[in-house]
Amino acid sequence: MQATVLGLPALVKPYPHRPYAAGLHAVRRCSVDWKPTWNVFPLKAFRGSSYTYIKIRASWDDEEVLKELSRSYDKLRTIWRKWFSLRSVRSMTMVYVRRLLTERLFSYADHTYVYPRRLGPAGVSPSKNMRLRYFLHHPEQMKGRHEFMQVLTARTDLGIEFVEGWQLARIFVAILLPVLASLLLGVLYAIFEGNVSDAFTIAGYMTSAYSVCLVLLGLLNFVEF
Question: 127, 160, 132: which is closest to 48 by C-alpha?
Answer without folding.
Answer: 160
